[in-house]
Amino acid sequence: MTTVDRAAGRDLGGAGAGYEVGSREYRRLVGALLCAGVACFAALYAPQGVLPLVAQSMRVSEAQSALLVSAGTVGLALGVLPWSWVADRIGRLTAMRAAMVASAVLGLAWIVFPGFEGMVVLRVLQGLALGGIPGLAITYLHDEVSPAQATVAAATYVSGTTLGGISGRMIAGPVAELWGWRWGVALTWVVAALGSVAFVVLAPPARGFVRDRGVRAADVVRNVGTHLRDPGMLVLYAQAFLLMGGFVAVYNYLGFRLEAQPFGLSAAVTSLLFLAYLSGTFSSRHAGRLAGRLGRIRVLALSWSTMLAGVALTLVDNLVAIAVGLVVLTGGFFGAHAIASGWVGARAGTGRAQAASLYNLFYYLGSSVLGWVGGMFFAGWGWSGVAGLMAGLVVAASALMWCGHRGVRGV
C-alpha cells in the first residue's frame, strides 16, 4: 500500500463491507450521526439567536457581537485538517468522541467567562474541538455504509445539523429573555452535551476503517495538495465557502433588523424564525434522493434558484413575507449543501478524510469571513446590503459550477 493510500486511513479497506439499509447497525449509525449533527451545531451556533442581547450587555457593535459565531467557525475551520490526521491514527469514531468531550468542556468555560475578548478566544478553542465532528462524520459514514446508500445517509446527517441549528437558536432566545443570554446559551450547551452522549451510546463499532499509526503529517499534506489541484474539488469547495458565508450573514443580522423599528420584536419572538431550519431538515433528505433521479448538477441548480427566490422575499417589509423567504432560502441552502458535501466524499479516491476536511475548512471559513463581512454591509446599507451580498454569492457559486462543470461531471 502506498503512503498516499495509507494516509487515507486505509479508507478503502471497508469497500463492499458497509452496513446495509434495514440492519440494526445501520439504524444505529444513522441515529448516531443525527445526534452528532445536533450536538455540533447546537454548540456552534448557540450565540447566534442572542447576538442583539450580547451586543447590549457587553456594549459591543453588531459586527463585534457576531465574532462569537465567527470565532467558533474559524476554530472549526482550523481544526478539521489536524483532526483528519488524528483520526487516521486513532480511528474516526474515537476521534469524534474525543472532540465531543473537549467541546463540552470548552463550551461551559466560555459561557461563564466574564470578559468579551476572553470569550472570543475560548470560542476559537471550542471551534477547534468541534472540528473533529463535521469532516469526520461524513468520512466515518462513507467507511461504514454501502456505497449505494452513502448519499442518502449523508443527507440524514445534514438534516441532523439543521435540528442542531434550530435547537441552539430556539432555546437560547426565549430563555435569554427571562434570565439573560448566558443562561439561554447554557441551556443550549446542555442539549449539545446530551447529543454527544447519545452519539457515544448509539454509534456502532467501526469496521470499514483499519487503524494505521504509521500515518505521517507529510502524507496528509500530500493528500491535501492532491485535492487542491483537482479543479472539480475546487468548484465544490467554492460552493461551501460562498453559499455558507452568505447564509450565515443572513441569520447573523436578521435579528438586528427585526428587533429594530418598524418591527420591534423581542429576542424570544425573533428566535421563532429559526424554525425555518426545519425546511433544511426536509430539503437535505430529499435532495439526496432527487439527485439519484435528476443528477447532482440539476438539483444544485434548483437549490440556487430557490435561495435567490427566498432572499428576494426577505426584502419585503412584511413579517409573513420575511418568514416565508427565510424558509425558502434555508431549504435551498441545505439542499445545495447536502449535494455538494456528498459529492466531495464520492469524488475522493484516496485521502477521503482530507477531502471532507477541506470541504469543511472552506465551509466554515466562508461562515467566519463572509458572516462577519455581512455586518459591514448591514452597517452601510441595512438589510438590502445583506440581501444583496447573499444574492451575489449565490450567483458567483452557480457561475463557478457551470464554468467548472466538466471538472466534476461523471462522479
Automatic annotation (TrEMBL):
**Cellular compartments per GO CC:** plasma membrane
Principal localisation: membrane
- Membrane topology according to the record: Multi-pass membrane protein
GO function term, MF aspect, one: transmembrane transporter activity
Q: Where in the cell is it found?
A: Cell membrane
TM ranges are: 29-46, 66-86, 98-116, 183-203, 234-254, 260-278, 299-316, 322-346, 358-379, 385-403
Name the PROSITE patterns for this protein.
MFS
Keywords on record: Cell membrane, Membrane, Transmembrane, Transmembrane helix, Transport
Major facilitator superfamily (MFS) profile domain location is 1-409
Task: Cite the InterPro entries for this sequence.
Answer: MFS, MFS_dom, MFS_trans_sf
Q: Which family does it belong to?
A: Belongs to the major facilitator superfamily.
Q: What is this protein called?
A: MFS transporter
Q: Which organism is it from?
A: Kineosporia babensis
